[in-house]
Prior knowledge:
Elements: H1 3-15, H2 20-39, H3 50-59, H4 65-84, H5 111-123, H6 128-143, H7 147-151, E1 158-159, E2 164-168, E3 174-178, H8 181-194, H9 212-226, H10 234-249, H11 251-258, H12 263-269, H13 274-283
Antiparallel strand pairs: 1-2, 2-3
Helix pairs in contact: 1-2, 2-4, 3-4, 5-6, 6-8, 6-10, 10-11, 11-12
Amino acid sequence: xxxxxxxxxxxxxxxxxxxxxxxxxxxxxxxxxxxxxxxxxxxxxxxxxxxxxxxxxxxxxxxxxxxxxxxxxxxxxxxxxxxxxxxxxxxxxxxxxxxxxxxxxxxxxxxxxxxxxxxxxxxxxxxxxxxxxxxxxxxxxxxxxxxxxxxxxxxxxxxxxxxxxxxxxxxxxxxxxxxxxxxxxxxxxxxxxxxxxxxxxxxxxxxxxxxxxxxxxxxxxxxxxxxxxxxxxxxxxxxxxxxxxxxxxxxxxxxxxxxxxxxxxxxxxxxxxxxxxxxxxxxxxxxxx
Length: 289
């Protein structure tokens, strides 16, 4: 019953310029929805009720809260499409509530922890691969780029003369970031060693664009070699960049560097720092009573 409708909807998403990641998520969630509808012995769209949708979101399979949130979004988009096509009269998914996601304080690396990682990669920067890894660690920790943005960097995105890095963010949005002097120095040396002016900036040993899996292996090896207990991943470096930048620059500049459209997204990263809290408490007028 739903197969042709879902196929038509996904085609609609493609021509409507939905991102590849969004289409992939919609496809996965609607595949689950088709399985759920089959288990309910429903034979027509008109038989699908609001209660069915609630049950699918909350109870079908062992889904995390993030998957449940993605299900709500997928159903709202799909049923909106069905209404546009005149296949249903009412978008019964429109008022589905999003599950509440408990807020957690993001983990980040302290200055001494990040310096420890920088020293580890600096010691291995006597080869092209080692220099590549050091630059990636600095870009992640200094500028807080997403791993997808780092992977998609090309050689002509780097301007070491002006000290600028052109970045493609989520949704294909492009912007320029100012490079710290140390990064310009390392990138100048790296580009000189590559001897090329076009193509991917960061290459694997097979001379292909580096992958997220390769980067994760690099982080894991560094954590094991240095005895770091925290799980090193790209978003941990993003949290680190946001946390330490916010200390000296404030939320507005941090928002610009991270490339967030909404301030509330930045505020998830720029949480209250323990050292700032300690300084405040020392100045509290009743601390000495």
